[in-house]
Amino acid sequence: MKISILKLARNDLKEIRDYLSGFGENPPREFREEFKRFCSQVAEMPNMYSVYELNSNYRKAVIIYDYLVFYKVENDREIKIYRVLHGKRNTIEFFSDG
Q1: Inter-residue long-range contacts of 4-10, CB under 8 Å, 24+ positions, other chains counted
Q2: Domain 2-95 of CATH type 3.40.640.10
Q3: Which of 8, 14, 45, 49 is disulfide-compatible with 61, CB 3.0–4.6 A?
């Protein structure tokens, strides 16, 4: 299944990389590897992660360092990744409009 990373999610990933870079080389590398692993898993089994309880239009996966990946399965052919946010953020503000 095709995976698309939308612009906001790409910006999130850049911010995460920049932030984790302050902790040395390993955290950004580990995050990148875990994100790739997530993408491989979700491409094979798109519904394996739970529906986001605050907005059922999205699914939510928790990956390394408590980051959340929010995505939708579109027409059983494509997965769109909308945001990648730290779990301590108030995520409802990003998805309240459905």
Answers
A1: 4/78, 4/79, 4/80, 4/81, 5/81, 6/80, 6/81, 6/82, 8/82, 8/83, 9/69, 9/81, 9/82, 9/83, 9/84
A2: no
A3: 49
